[in-house]
Write a structure and sequence with these properties.
360 residues; single chain; 12 helices; 2 strands; mainly alpha
């Protein structure tokens, strides 16, 4: 029996369940980055980025793989990705730059604008020390996603889209990532100038996993493959001595996250198929890119309105900030992301229909 959104055993249209999960993951990242507003942090919420990479692989396979195999020009693919990702990316970067300059001018912060040009080109700013995207930190994962997307296009053109290739790429990326993790006795990062390669490895592993999950979307046996990899990570770290407590992260990244994506897309639970999930899906990209610039603007006013470190003060700050973030993100989706995407595709004189689904 096929679930909602499936025709003849194949998925079609928007998968609201995955949209909603991406929105929830984006909110987790916001909480992780802003303990000064929320009053607490979720220690390993940064693993939501690995979840984004898996979702990206699934959605790109769903939206583009067949079209690329049938001869979709690289220019069309590039235009679609640019129109989808760049408008909000640019607005968020400019907003962060404006706030940074303003704070620097009034003496409440230091301006770090040397990285603006490479960051505006979606490129990391490689310094001796420090983040690669200092104005808007979460942007590092967008660079990783774009890089992996471009490599993937040409890989498909070279015929690397069969199940055999997908298994090989995913297994090799898993061995590389966890080999580095064992060597360094920690999970990989990716947002600092000296660990860009780590972010690319995380992106490759997640994206390859998403491609594989979509290819095997009708076969639950794929979950056994991911379970075996998770147990392999457990065994290796247990054998060498897991002094950094990486084992739970390995089980989560290699087991829980892929299983969640496959089950959510396959089962389409009612709780993840409603308007709230669709709303979060629409807002997810803006939540992810705007929470840092928005916090830069609102942190001091909220602190003045609700001073102290009591529970009630943090609850008020968190509630007001979340409401503003969701409102701004919703307006961004309706008034910026969708119109800008349509306008850019028309401006570039390509008769391209925008790809459905907001989790792209």
């Amino acid at each position: 029996m096929t679930g909602a959104g499936m025709k003849n055993g194949h998925f079609s249209g928007r998968i609201v369940s995955l949209d909603g999960l991406r929105g929830l993951a984006a909110m987790l990242v916001a909480v992780y980055h802003l303990p000064v507003i929320f009053g607490f942090t979720i220690t390993h919420a940064y693993l939501a980025v690995d979840f984004f990479f898996i979702l990206s692989g699934w959605v790109m396979a769903h939206s583009y793989e067949k079209r690329i195999c049938l001869g979709m020009p690289f220019r069309d693919f590039l235009y679609n990705r640019f129109a989808r990702l760049y408008p909000l990316y640019a607005v968020a970067l400019l907003a962060a730059l404006a706030v940074t300059l303003m704070k620097s001018r009034i003496g409440t912060g230091s301006a770090n604008i040397a990285c603006f040009v490479p960051n505006a080109l979606m490129l990391p700013c490689l310094q001796d020390d420090g983040p690669t995207f200092p104005l808007n930190g979460p942007s590092w994962s967008i660079f990783v996603e774009v890089t992996i997307n471009l490599i993937w296009f040409f890989a498909i053109r070279m015929g690397m889209h069969t199940l055999r290739w997908k298994l090989a790429v995913h297994l090799c990326s898993a061995l590389l990532l966890w080999g580095f993790a064992v060597w360094m006795n920690r999970y990989l990062a990716g947002y600092e100038s000296d660990d860009v390669h780590e972010g690319l490895l995380r992106g490759l592993l997640g994206f390859a996993g998403g491609l594989l999950l979509f290819h095997c979307r009708m076969h639950a046996l794929i979950l056994a493959y991911f379970a075996a990899l998770a147990l392999g990570v457990f065994a290796v770290f247990y054998a060498v001595g897991d002094t950094a407590d990486v084992i739970p992260l390995g089980l989560f990244v290699m087991g829980v996250l892929p299983t969640t994506v496959w089950l959510a897309a396959r089962q389409r639970p009612a709780i993840l198929e409603g308007r709230a999930a669709a709303f979060l899906g629409d807002c997810s990209y803006a939540i992810y890119l705007l929470h840092v610039p928005l916090a830069m603007m609102l942190q001091k006013p909220l602190r003045l309105m609700f001073p102290g470190t009591g529970i009630s003060a943090y609850m008020m700050k968190a509630a007001i900030f979340t409401a503003i973030l969701l409102f701004v993100s919703s307006m961004s989706y309706r008034l910026l992301e969708v119109p800008a995407r349509r306008w850019l595709l028309q401006r570039l004189k390509r008769d391209l229909r925008p790809v459905t689904g907001s989790i792209q």
